[in-house]
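In this section we walk through a basic example: taking a raw amino acid sequence and producing a predicted 3D structure, encoded as discrete structure tokens. The instruction is simple. Fold the sequence below.
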Amino acid sequence: MSKNSACETCREKSEGCEETCDRHDFSFAPRKGIRSVITVMSGKGGVGKSTVTALLASATAKKGYRTGILDADITGPSIPRLFGLKSGRLQTGPRGIIPIETTLGIKVMSLNLLVEQEEDAVIWRGPLLASAIRQFWEEVDWGELDYLFVDLPPGTGDVPLTVLQSLPLKGVVIVMSPQDLAVMIVKKAARMTQQLNVPIIGLVENMAYHECTGCGEISYPFGKPQGEQVSAALGVPLLATLPIRQAITNFGDKGQVEMLDEGPLSEVVARFEQLQPKVVQ
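The resulting token sequence is shown next.
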């Protein structure tokens, strides 16, 4: 989509606005020092996308990579809660806003670090959402990072479109769950990504099964896993199949997600390393 074609559908369009309006300018300023930008997206909400983002960031940090998370889920941010980060601690330095660091040193920027109360609603239209993403990218002092994960809101709306068009992405990790409805919608997200010529690193199927801690019996609360079928249909790898784990809820609610064992997701880092080999310090 060009700037002019975007202006054609703008409700605030006025004569000649395309000459001066920057709302539909999809070019973000380049950033030096960020080696790999990987976005995590889903078609449907509630599949654990933000938790997967947090676990992937934790896995890379534990392997010695300099890691950050840009929380692009502006109206429904949950990354700070998962890491136990509170608002009101952000400061500004000579190079911009200084992101808050987690226990492992993961740098985090989220709108929930700016609002007074984490329950405060953010009621913004598309242009303001896109502007916030631009500020998080251009005006935050990310420093030197090996990986910057971008946690997207669900769906194929303004924010995913802005990120996919504007950031220098190495690729996308798509999170799904086994329900037929979730599978249908995740295919929409995958095809949006493919239409925009952004590479898909692979799929993560979350909440695929439950293993009884007492007897070891496997059950499927949301139906049998479908990750392999979706992977084959889309022609992209299945990176991991994750179970339902009470520990994830417990540690996430306590803001201690970094203390979890990432399980199969720790192996996904090897896939990232193929995209961007580690630099020996």
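Looking at the output, two observations stand out. Confidence is low (pLDDT under 50) at residues 1-6. The domain at 35-273 is CATH 3.40.50.300 (Rossmann fold). In the next section we compare this with other chains.
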